[in-house]
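FIELD: query
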Amino acid sequence: MSAALEVTPTDHDVKSGVRNTDSIAEGLSDLLADTYRLTFKTHAYHWNVEGPLFFSLHKLTEEQYENLFDAADELAERVRALGKLAPARLDAIVSASIIKDKDKTPSAGEMCTDLAEDHQRVAHRFHALIELAEENKDPVTADLATERSAFHEQAAWMLRAITA
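FIELD: result
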């Protein structure tokens, strides 16, 4: 049994017809980083939001961070299906992500605006991944990226609608 515990994960060559798997896996890994950072940020705002819209924002952010958490697993599993290793270090997640933290705790309205802007940026990155996947005969990644982009676009719209 001890030999079974000594297996170290490695990249594998996958012959599915997808071209340029390194670039696609890198794009997926970057978006996994964004997803993880946005999960934490959304969860932190969920914990700390206050004011008359507390309950509404608390519930909305809960729905969003739960969706994001599930999506991280889907993205990592797609990287593995392409034969590559998913990110396994927090510093790699932080450095690859476009999601940044605020210097101070924002107001409820600033939280909504900040999250909406983050969702828009992530949706834009998913759009680029869709193009890359389609160019390289990877409809599975393109479909996953389309689904995730739709989530981010809707999340941004809902958050913007609160502050309108």
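FIELD: remark
Residues 46 and 61 are 6 Å apart (CA to CA).
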